[in-house]
Each structure stands twice: as structure tokens, then as C-alpha cells.
Design brief:
Layout (H helix, E strand, L loop, with lengths): L8 H4 L10 H8 L7 E2 L11 H10 L12 H11 L6 E4 L2 H12 L5 E5 L5 H8 L3 E5 L8 H7 L4 E7 L11 H10 L5 E5 L24 E6 L12 E5 L1 H10 L7 H11 L2 H25 L10 E5 L3 H10 L2 E2 L1 E2 L8 E5 L3 H17 L1
Parallel strand pairs: 1-10, 3-4, 3-5, 5-6, 6-7
Antiparallel strand pairs: 2-8, 7-8, 9-12, 11-12
Helix pairs in contact: 3-10, 4-10, 5-6, 5-9, 11-13
């Protein structure tokens, strides 16, 4: 008997999420020295973590035999004060992906629909399909969200709309005025998930104002993460901000102790380290300029990005990706996002960006 047949059809049809290749895996596959490998595949912070976060981890690790605070009291207070939201409007997750899944589990079921864009984050269809709901894909416009298309796609079966801003993997950004005008037209019984994982990398004029809109739009869920600019990807911690009634539903399906003690302590410390976030932003601005200037020099098309990565177009992207791997450089192929001619590269340190561009130039010249 094939035991997989016991699972529902919609579960068997899921294609598991594929993360960026780990350095250790590439080293084993190619016989390379780990120290010589540059990983620019997963949009991680090349500066590492805040020194304050490191100290917080050191302080809490001795008590690791204890269960974490299931209500994340200290972190809840820190987020509440930082973003001026009530504690009961906050939900914490094992990464911001957890917030997306909790929203799907709380509000979707078979017969419901969730709307998301073509070329948008792969987790949206995954969490939709995992609960037996139907995903509705709106074609992108120049690799960006078509909000008018979203409005047209809304039906009586629509329960959730997922919007990544900036979007991954394209890096495109929806203007604040355009987004707010869209929200005003969305029916009040449809929840809009605003996935703002990369907001810390936006300039002051482009930063999201969605948190200020929570009182005006009770049907929005704002998803944030500590994995990007805060550098805590390995600890897996994120949070959602929303109306208290919506938060109550997410907390009903949230697993107990879903955020570990080290993650909570590191997140509290990270929120207090504005200097580290500012340095991360500055490093990203410089690195983005370095990469895009390199693409100009090589005559390569790329999608202007508002995040900490950029997607660029190459001839035979799969082959170029394989050659990059053979040379110890890990980037992200994005054919699964219906972008087979593109690769996505994360912004790294100056030396990492330079190594990537050097290897890429060598590959293109040989092509």
C-alpha cells in the first residue's frame, strides 16, 4: 500500500518549498572548501547579527532547559512600544512564514479562495494549498503586482489576499498612495496580508505606513520578520500586527511555544539596536549599487529592487547557475517563479559581491 494515498489530494499535489542551497551542502557536492564559498542566495544580512542580540543570546542560553514564555511577554512589550500597537494586536511566529500559515489556517478552508500575484513569494500558494483552499494568481505587470487585477479577481469566495511589498523575488515596490487606495476598495470581509519582510531596507520616504492604517482598515494583517535586516534568520522569528479580533483567531491555531527563548531575547535586543539596522541599511545601499553597476558593465538586464536582493537576466540561467556553483558562488535560480531566464542574487559584503561579479563576468565571456 502506498501510504501517501492516505493524504488528501491537495496535500499530495504540493511541491515542497526549496530554500537556498546551504554552504555545507555545496562543499560536499563540489569538493570545495567551505571558507571559499560565497552564499548570496537567501537574502540574509551579511553583517550578521546585532552585538546586543549576541549578548542577549549569551545571557539566556544557560536557561535553555526551560520552556520559553509561550506568550512572549517581554518581546510583546518591546514590539508594542516600538510600533505603537496594543499588545493584543500582536502575534508571534516561527519566522514570518509562520504568520502567513497561521492566517491561512485561521481563515481559509476548502471552497475558499486566496489571491496573490504571479512572481510573488512561493509560500502564498503553499499555505493556501495546504488547507485545501484555491489559489487565484493575478498576472504581474512588469514583474509587479497588478492591484486593479486583484480587485477584479475578488469573488464571494475570496477570504485572503497576499501582497508582498517589496515583493520577493522581483524586488518591486507598490507606492503607499496606490496601496492605500486599493485597500479602500477591498471588501471589509476580505483580509489583506501585507508581507513587509524587507521594510527595513526601504528609504525613509518609501517605508510602509501600514501600521498607522490599522485603525482605519480592520481587515489587514501586517507581517514582519527578524530574519532580514535584523540578521536572525537562523533563530526563526517574525510577528504579525492586526486587529485584536483577527489576532485572537491566529492565536487559536498557533502552536504553543512556537518562538524559542533565544529568539525572543535576541529580538528584544535587536529592536533596541537602531545603529545596527542603520548600518545594515547603508551596507545594503552600497552593495546594491555595486551589483547594479556590475550588471550595467556586463550589459545584463535586471529588475530594479527595493529589497536586499536583485534579479538579473542571463542567457541559459540554469547553466550559469551551475557554473556559479562550481566556482563556489551560491545564488538563487527562480524558474519556479515563472522566471526561467533570471537568477536572484542577495546583496553581500563588498568582497562577496566582487567575487560574484568576477565569476559571473568570466562565465559570460566564455558564453
Amino acid at each position: 500500500m502506498n501510504l501517501s494515498s492516505l493524504a488528501p489530494d491537495y496535500i499530495r499535489a504540493i511541491a515542497p518549498y526549496q530554500g537556498g542551497k546551504p554552504i555545507s551542502e555545496l562543499a560536499r557536492e563540489m569538493g570545495l572548501n567551505e571558507a571559499d564559498i560565497v552564499k548570496l542566495a537567501s537574502n540574509e544580512n551579511p553583517l550578521g547579527i546585532s552585538p546586543k542580540a549576541q549578548m542577549a543570546i549569551d545571557d539566556v542560553i544557560a536557561d535553555i532547559a526551560r520552556y520559553p514564555d509561550g506568550n512572549s511577554f517581554a518581546l510583546r512589550e518591546a514590539v508594542s512600544q516600538k510600533f505603537n500597537v496594543a499588545p493584543n494586536q500582536i502575534v508571534f511566529g516561527n519566522g514570518s512564514n509562520d504568520i502567513l500559515e497561521l492566517a491561512a489556517r485561521a481563515f481559509l478552508h476548502a471552497g475558499c479562495e486566496a489571491i496573490y500575484s504571479q512572481h510573488a513569494f512561493a509560500v502564498y500558494p503553499l499555505v493556501t494549498q495546504a488547507v485545501g483552499a484555491t489559489g487565484v494568481v493575478v498576472p504581474a505587470q512588469n514583474y509587479a503586482h497588478d492591484l486593479d487585477g486583484f480587485l477584479t479577481a475578488i469573488t464571494p469566495r475570496t477570504r485572503l489576499i497576499f501582497i508582498a511589498n517589496p515583493n520577493n523575488p522581483t524586488g518591486t515596490l507598490i507606492a503607499k498612495a496606490e496601496l492605500k487606495a486599493f485597500l479602500k476598495q477591498v471588501p471589509k470581509n476580505v483580509l489583506v496580508v501585507l508581507d513587509e519582510a524587507y521594510d527595513e531596507y526601504l528609504s525613509a520616504e518609501h517605508k510602509s505606513e501600514a501600521i498607522r492604517w490599522l485603525n482605519e482598515f480592520e481587515n489587514i494583517i501586517i507581517s514582519r520578520t527578524f530574519s532580514k535586516a535584523y540578521g536572525l534568520a537562523g533563530l526563526r522569528i517574525g510577528f504579525g500586527l492586526m486587529h485584536a479580533d483577527v489576532a485572537d483567531m491566529l492565536n487559536r491555531v498557533r502552536q504553543p511555544f512556537n518562538v524559542n527563548s533565544m529568539a525572543q531575547a535576541a529580538a528584544v535586543a535587536s529592536l533596541a539596536d537602531d545603529d545596527f539596522v542603520a548600518r545594515s541599511y547603508a551596507a545594503n545601499q552600497a552593495g546594491m549599487a555595486q551589483l547594479t553597476q556590475g550588471f550595467h558593465k556586463l550589459g545584463l538586464e535586471y529588475i530594479p529592487s527595493s529589497a536586499n536582493f536583485v534579479s538579473f537576466k542571463v542567457q541559459d540561467a540554469a547553466a550559469v547557475n551551475q557554473l556559479l556553483l562550481q566556482n563556489g558562488v551560491i545564488v538563487r535560480p527562480i524558474a519556479n517563479y515563472e522566471m526561467p531566464d533570471y537568477l536572484r542574487v542577495s546583496v553581500g559584503l563588498f568582497s562577496e559581491n566582487a567575487r560574484f561579479l568576477q565569476v559571473l563576468e568570466h562565465i559570460i565571456n566564455k558564453q
